Hints:
The chain is mainly alpha-helical. The chain is built from 16 helices and no strands.
Amino acid sequence: MKNNDRNASLAIYLFKKRSKKTILKIITTVLILGLCFTIILPLLNLVPVVLSSIEELGNPNVIWLPLEKSLVSFKAAIRFILPNGLMTMAKSVLYATGIMVIQIFFSAMVGYSLARINFWGRNVVFFMVILVFLLPRQSLLLSQYIFFNHFDVLGIMNIFTKAGEVNLINNPIVLVILAVFGFGVNQSLFIFLFSQFFKNIPKELEEAALIDGCGFYKTYFRIMIPNAVPIISTVAILSFVWNYGDTYYTNYFNPNGGFLSTLLSTTFSSANKDYVMNAVRVWYDVPLVPDMAFDAVKQAGVLVYLIPLLIVYLVGQRKLVENLENSGLVG
């Protein structure tokens, strides 16, 4: 009888344990499916909008699939945001890639210095890095704009120019200078990430390199940088995405740069709604253009704009997740 009671108790215990696991799996699956549906639903709603003919936009009978498929919205969006064809997108990609390289190079050096070198005022410098990240960019805009509008560092321009100062507004060199001196898009965050990563590297590596005859710079470039590949790839992805989509610095300091993000934001502003609708009517001989045509062309333009970002995400999303877990943010 005792054995039977024990077997019965064990069976009940195992049944309860399996039931809890099954219920937990069901709840987790439902939550994941609900989250996926919430994320995918806006994309599904785009299908009948961007793939419908202009005349069908706003038709209440169109729910998930358009009655008559058309690529007019994409064609119009490409004419608006890619005036020079793929060269416009290539220019934006090259700009984001160039700024990304600059930010990685200088952020890594600053982060390494803050993490591994004991110098007077290090805590103050680190505090200033965090402060720049916390401050809204608008608070620095006026001083930055005036500085680049009347650019003359320590009076050096007086030696080379008669005017004594140079106006760098609407010049891409401004964006490079901001990245070099740590004021690029979210660059203080990159410095913090590098600093946290280098703090977690064992000091024994530096000591071993010193014994082998490596100096400071050789240790940095030969030992530290190769070990920092995880955080470098993480910062590279974040920097590219944020610089590719930046409209703040590009609008203020290089508005005529012709970057894709700038063209997208200016072309499809609410003030240009009539212009966009009239252009669609003339270009594609549509007698009646509904108000939803503006949103359809705008959403098609967003999808075209996202192509490089989707490629970067598909290529690097696994490394991004793995590297963020090991970047020193935890603990």
